[in-house]
Fold this sequence. Notes:
Number of strands: 4
Amino acid sequence: MQPDPADHIIIDDILPPKMRTFHKDAKGKPVESDMAQFLAKWLDNWLRIPGTDFKIGLDPLLSLIPGFGSTIASGGGLIILIEAVRSRVSVPVLLRMAGNILMNTLFDFVPALGPVASAFFKSNSRNLRLLQDWQAGQHDLVKRSTWRLFGVLGLIVAALISILLGLFALYVWLLTHLFRA
């Protein structure tokens, strides 16, 4: 008995999407969408500064508009993050990408220096590179570099906590010795 064709309906065969998110390379692996490349280019590397090889994008320029510009630029970065979710990037790498977006957004809160820091940090290009490396099959390399980053950040946080605890102990010791009389 043959299976009923209605039981095996594949939506994309009936209603193909107008634009597929991923293209396939020669080996059939998904490659990042044109949208992720487009956003990374326009947000981080759109305009070359004359006389240099340094490029800036719309991200630092938009961040000059308080509130609104930062929201638009972060929204573009979130689209790259969504592309990574669709590529089934691991959670630690997604956290790293979200951290890049968060750092870029935090830069925007620093008047005058924020857009400069954003121009050098280039969070969207970093996230595109992580996405490309992941899709190229370099899962172990991306995971290792991500765990290394988390390890270094953990050590920095531990060092800061140790310094704060040491300063607190010194403060308590000074107060007890100065006001003992």
